[in-house]
Design goal:
Strand content: under 5%
Structural class: mainly alpha
Order of helices and strands: HHHHHH
Amino acid sequence: MTAIAAITTLVLAGGTTLVVMNYEKDYAADYTPPVNPDPQKILQEAQADTSAGRYKDALAKHVWFQENALKYQPSMVGVRSSFALMYFGELAQKHPPAMEKLKSMRAGV
């Protein structure tokens, strides 16, 4: 019985590892903004992608926004720390990889 429990635990742990690895691929999605990117427009596109179920695209744009918006538009500091995080959180409720990425970004990982 103990051997069966140990094997079951290993199999489940392996399955969890595969899920985590797939999530990592999801947040590795690259987003290349247009020349002279407009952070507000990119945030709106991320919202539209979330609404349309294009979660990987939305995630990539949210990550870009959080990492780059202030470089292009310093006045977005309030939007970035309020509305943008709220929208990112809405995506995270629908798309588990977004939740993992949001947690890692907030933890400074």
